[in-house]
């Protein structure tokens, strides 16, 4: 009797263990039907085509390639455009390698948003609203000049020259036979000398140097208007030169930037009498007068800014202290451009 019970018990245990083993092996070897039926039609489709690149993937790669090409195109631009105001007029200054070249002037009625520096492509894409595709719009003129400069090769820098156009009674800057821009009442050198011939020569040589490192031309190497000569050009500049004055709000900066490189490359010293300006050449001396108290100081431009709307100069802490605007942070000022 005991032997029969033991035999039956042993058989039951072995049968149970064998069944469990078979079930386990079956689970590994073949997924249950429920697992397959739980997959959505979309999942099945994705699984069945996993080895083949989908149209969406191909399209994504195409878009990425296009975006990369567009980014590469933008990055090759050597120009930028800074819309701003000059006295009471709208204006746009073209920069090459972050150095100012030409300022185009517009009407007093137009006011641009303060968006800082923009590329010609960004403006064409509508980044700056209300730009008119017209010769009367300074930003549009800046766009056309920027695009023309960006198309120049390094080798073409040596072909850049200036000539007097007797028909239009103006100076034309060109590369070979292609006109880049011409001077008129609404076109001036960003740091004008108040002398037409010298401004033309400076603009020509700045273009030659910044585009391709071409050597500068002498005044005798460009075609000038008949009544102007290199001799009386200098005399005209000395006798007729007037100091430019501008009014606006000034701010100051210091502790957070002390010891860091300024846009000119020199170390910023918050205690030195220096300032940041958007367009004036580095090294320009400017007399700054606080219109609230009449106190003045002379600063040297060695940095770029300010880029906050309504402010025309950013003083070092030392300069701001001299005219009593540390506490207020900002103050209305008059700028008098003294030269270098």
Task: Please give a structural write-up.
- The protein has 340 residues and is of the alpha+beta class.
- The chain folds into two domains: 79-240, no CATH class; 245-339, Barwin-like endoglucanases.
- It has nine helices and 13 strands.
- The strands form three sheets. It has a six-stranded mixed barrel with strand order 8-12-9-11-10-13. Strands 1-2-3-7 form a four-stranded antiparallel β-sheet.
- The termini are far apart.
- Mean pLDDT is 77; it is low at 1-7, 9-74 and 231-241.
Molecular shape: globular
Give me the oligomer status: single chain
Q: Mean pLDDT, rounded to whole units?
A: 77
Q: How many helical elements?
A: 9
Q: How many domains, as an integer?
A: 2
**Which series of helices and strands comes N to C?**
HHHHEEEHHEEEEHHEEEEEHE
Portion of residues within helices:
25-40%
Instruction: Supply the helix-strand structural class.
Output: alpha+beta
End-to-end separation = 123 Å
For the biggest β-sheet, the strand order reads 8-12-9-11-10-13
The number of strands is 13
Summarize the SSE layout with pairings.
Blueprint: H1 2-29, H2 33-37, H3 41-48, H4 55-75, E1 79-86, E2 89-96, E3 99-105, H5 120-124, H6 138-150, E4 160-165, E5 170-175, E6 178-182, E7 187-189, H7 196-212, H8 230-240, E8 245-253, E9 274-276, E10 285-290, E11 296-303, E12 311-316, H9 317-322, E13 330-339
Parallel strand pairs: 8-12, 9-11
Antiparallel strand pairs: 1-2, 2-3, 3-7, 4-5, 5-6, 8-13, 9-12, 10-11, 10-13
